[in-house]
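A.,

Following up on our hallway conversation. C-alpha coordinates first:
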Protein backbone atom coordinates (compact mmCIF):
# COMPACT_ATOMS: atom_id res chain seq x y z
CA UNK A 1 0.00 0.00 0.00
CA UNK A 2 1.55 3.34 -1.06
CA UNK A 3 2.49 5.83 1.68
CA UNK A 4 0.58 9.10 1.50
CA UNK A 5 2.90 12.08 1.29
CA UNK A 6 2.14 14.75 3.88
CA UNK A 7 3.56 18.27 4.02
CA UNK A 8 2.81 20.60 6.89
CA UNK A 9 3.40 24.11 8.17
CA UNK A 10 3.10 25.55 11.68
CA UNK A 11 1.96 29.10 12.31
CA UNK A 12 3.16 30.16 15.75
CA UNK A 13 1.44 32.89 17.77
CA UNK A 14 -1.18 33.64 15.15
CA UNK A 15 -2.85 37.04 15.47
CA UNK A 16 -5.75 37.43 17.88
CA UNK A 17 -5.86 41.26 17.81
CA UNK A 18 -4.90 43.89 15.23
CA UNK A 19 -3.53 47.31 16.13
CA UNK A 20 -5.80 49.95 14.63
CA UNK A 21 -4.09 53.07 16.01
CA UNK A 22 -0.85 53.92 17.80
CA UNK A 23 -2.62 56.25 20.21
CA UNK A 24 -6.25 56.75 21.11
CA UNK A 25 -7.15 60.44 21.09
CA UNK A 26 -8.06 61.82 24.52
CA UNK A 27 -11.70 62.82 24.94
CA UNK A 28 -12.80 65.48 27.39
CA UNK A 29 -16.05 66.14 29.18
CA UNK A 30 -18.28 68.68 27.48
CA UNK A 31 -20.20 71.35 29.33
CA UNK A 32 -23.87 70.40 29.49
CA UNK A 33 -24.91 72.55 32.44
CA UNK A 34 -27.39 70.79 34.69
CA UNK A 35 -27.29 67.80 32.34
CA UNK A 36 -23.71 66.94 33.37
CA UNK A 37 -24.40 63.83 35.39
CA UNK A 38 -22.36 60.95 36.75
CA UNK A 39 -19.33 63.13 37.35
CA UNK A 40 -16.88 62.02 40.05
CA UNK A 41 -17.28 64.01 43.24
CA UNK A 42 -13.60 64.96 43.19
CA UNK A 43 -14.28 67.05 40.05
CA UNK A 44 -17.21 68.98 41.50
CA UNK A 45 -18.25 71.69 41.25
CA UNK A 46 -17.85 71.89 37.48
CA UNK A 47 -16.70 75.09 35.81
CA UNK A 48 -17.71 76.14 32.32
CA UNK A 49 -14.53 76.27 30.26
CA UNK A 50 -13.58 77.40 26.74
CA UNK A 51 -14.53 75.53 23.57
CA UNK A 52 -17.60 74.02 25.19
CA UNK A 53 -15.64 71.96 27.71
CA UNK A 54 -16.38 71.29 31.35
CA UNK A 55 -13.54 71.87 33.81
CA UNK A 56 -13.09 70.48 37.30
CA UNK A 57 -12.93 72.64 40.41
CA UNK A 58 -9.21 73.23 39.75
CA UNK A 59 -9.89 74.49 36.23
CA UNK A 60 -8.55 71.32 34.56
CA UNK A 61 -10.06 69.40 31.64
CA UNK A 62 -11.70 66.09 32.59
CA UNK A 63 -10.79 62.97 30.61
CA UNK A 64 -13.76 60.79 29.69
CA UNK A 65 -11.61 57.92 28.36
CA UNK A 66 -8.77 57.62 30.90
CA UNK A 67 -8.40 53.86 30.41
CA UNK A 68 -7.64 54.14 26.68
CA UNK A 69 -6.37 57.69 26.04
CA UNK A 70 -2.87 57.88 24.51
CA UNK A 71 -2.64 54.08 24.36
CA UNK A 72 -2.65 51.84 21.27
CA UNK A 73 -6.10 50.77 20.09
CA UNK A 74 -6.59 47.13 19.16
CA UNK A 75 -9.47 45.30 17.50
CA UNK A 76 -10.14 41.71 18.54
CA UNK A 77 -10.45 39.22 15.68
CA UNK A 78 -13.80 37.46 15.60
CA UNK A 79 -15.61 35.31 13.05
CA UNK A 80 -18.97 36.80 14.05
CA UNK A 81 -17.65 40.32 13.54
CA UNK A 82 -16.23 39.43 10.12
CA UNK A 83 -19.74 38.33 9.14
CA UNK A 84 -21.10 41.73 10.14
CA UNK A 85 -18.21 43.60 8.50
CA UNK A 86 -16.97 45.10 11.79
CA UNK A 87 -19.39 47.95 11.22
CA UNK A 88 -17.47 49.33 8.23
CA UNK A 89 -15.92 47.73 5.12
CA UNK A 90 -12.65 49.66 5.57
CA UNK A 91 -12.17 48.20 9.04
CA UNK A 92 -12.82 44.70 7.71
CA UNK A 93 -10.39 45.25 4.84
CA UNK A 94 -7.64 46.44 7.20
CA UNK A 95 -8.12 43.45 9.51
CA UNK A 96 -8.22 40.96 6.63
CA UNK A 97 -5.11 42.46 5.03
CA UNK A 98 -3.18 42.42 8.30
CA UNK A 99 -4.05 38.77 8.99
CA UNK A 100 -3.06 37.73 5.45
CA UNK A 101 0.23 39.63 5.63
CA UNK A 102 1.03 38.00 8.97
CA UNK A 103 0.31 34.56 7.49
CA UNK A 104 2.59 35.28 4.51
CA UNK A 105 5.39 36.30 6.86
CA UNK A 106 4.92 33.13 8.94
CA UNK A 107 4.78 30.87 5.86
CA UNK A 108 8.05 32.27 4.56
CA UNK A 109 9.69 32.16 7.97
CA UNK A 110 8.74 28.48 8.30
CA UNK A 111 10.43 27.73 4.96
CA UNK A 112 7.25 26.23 3.53
CA UNK A 113 7.77 25.40 -0.15
CA UNK A 114 5.34 25.36 -3.06
CA UNK A 115 3.02 22.37 -2.98
CA UNK A 116 4.00 20.08 -5.89
CA UNK A 117 1.50 19.58 -8.71
CA UNK A 118 1.54 15.82 -8.11
CA UNK A 119 -0.24 16.29 -4.77
CA UNK A 120 -3.41 17.80 -6.21
CA UNK A 121 -6.28 17.56 -5.45
CA UNK A 122 -5.56 18.27 -1.81
CA UNK A 123 -6.88 17.22 1.53
CA UNK A 124 -6.11 19.79 4.22
CA UNK A 125 -6.23 19.19 7.95
CA UNK A 126 -6.12 22.05 10.45
CA UNK A 127 -5.23 21.81 14.13
CA UNK A 128 -5.59 24.69 16.60
CA UNK A 129 -3.49 24.84 19.76
CA UNK A 130 -4.78 27.40 22.26
CA UNK A 131 -5.97 27.70 25.87
CA UNK A 132 -9.59 26.91 26.62
CA UNK A 133 -10.15 30.34 28.14
CA UNK A 134 -12.98 31.29 30.45
CA UNK A 135 -16.67 30.53 30.25
CA UNK A 136 -18.71 31.08 28.17
CA UNK A 137 -16.50 29.00 25.91
CA UNK A 138 -15.90 30.11 22.34
CA UNK A 139 -17.06 28.17 19.25
CA UNK A 140 -14.52 26.46 16.99
CA UNK A 141 -16.49 27.43 13.89
CA UNK A 142 -15.92 31.12 14.73
CA UNK A 143 -12.31 30.61 13.59
CA UNK A 144 -13.42 30.09 9.96
CA UNK A 145 -11.84 33.34 8.75
CA UNK A 146 -8.33 32.16 9.65
CA UNK A 147 -8.64 29.26 7.22
CA UNK A 148 -9.84 31.50 4.41
CA UNK A 149 -7.11 34.10 4.91
CA UNK A 150 -4.46 31.38 5.28
CA UNK A 151 -5.39 29.91 1.89
CA UNK A 152 -5.40 33.41 0.39
CA UNK A 153 -1.91 33.93 1.84
CA UNK A 154 -0.67 30.62 0.38
CA UNK A 155 -1.82 31.74 -3.05
CA UNK A 156 -0.39 35.24 -2.65
CA UNK A 157 3.09 33.91 -1.88
CA UNK A 158 3.00 31.24 -4.60
CA UNK A 159 2.74 28.13 -2.41
CA UNK A 160 -0.69 27.09 -3.66
CA UNK A 161 -1.84 26.93 -7.30
CA UNK A 162 -5.52 27.66 -6.60
CA UNK A 163 -7.93 27.35 -3.71
CA UNK A 164 -10.97 26.26 -5.73
CA UNK A 165 -12.76 22.92 -5.29
CA UNK A 166 -10.75 21.31 -8.10
CA UNK A 167 -7.52 21.87 -6.18
CA UNK A 168 -8.83 21.46 -2.62
CA UNK A 169 -11.44 18.72 -2.30
CA UNK A 170 -11.38 18.10 1.45
CA UNK A 171 -10.97 20.94 3.93
CA UNK A 172 -11.48 19.73 7.48
CA UNK A 173 -10.95 21.34 10.86
CA UNK A 174 -10.31 23.06 13.03
CA UNK A 175 -9.43 20.38 15.57
CA UNK A 176 -8.63 21.77 19.01
CA UNK A 177 -5.68 20.88 21.24
CA UNK A 178 -5.36 22.56 24.67
CA UNK A 179 -2.23 24.40 25.77
CA UNK A 180 -1.49 26.21 29.02
CA UNK A 181 -0.72 29.74 27.82
CA UNK A 182 -1.69 32.04 24.97
CA UNK A 183 2.01 32.35 24.05
CA UNK A 184 1.94 28.65 23.08
CA UNK A 185 -0.85 29.15 20.56
CA UNK A 186 -0.31 27.90 17.02
CA UNK A 187 -1.99 26.52 13.92
CA UNK A 188 -0.80 23.34 12.21
CA UNK A 189 -1.89 22.80 8.61
CA UNK A 190 -1.25 19.44 6.90
CA UNK A 191 -1.57 18.86 3.17
CA UNK A 192 -1.95 15.48 1.47
CA UNK A 193 -3.28 14.16 -1.80
CA UNK A 194 -6.97 13.24 -1.91
CA UNK A 195 -6.85 9.72 -3.40
CA UNK A 196 -10.58 9.17 -3.67
CA UNK A 197 -11.44 7.86 -7.12
CA UNK A 198 -14.38 10.25 -7.37
CA UNK A 199 -12.10 13.29 -7.46
CA UNK A 200 -9.12 11.96 -9.43
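Then the amino acids I'd put at each of the 200 positions:
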Amino acid sequence: MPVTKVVSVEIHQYLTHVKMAEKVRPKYLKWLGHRNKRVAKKNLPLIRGPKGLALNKNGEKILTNPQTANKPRFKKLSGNNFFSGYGHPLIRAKLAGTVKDDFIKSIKKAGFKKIPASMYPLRIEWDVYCPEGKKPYWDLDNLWFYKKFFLDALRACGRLEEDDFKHITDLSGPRWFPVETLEERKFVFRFMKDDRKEVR
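Helices lie at 79-84, 89-109, 144-156. Curious whether your intuition agrees with the design.

B.
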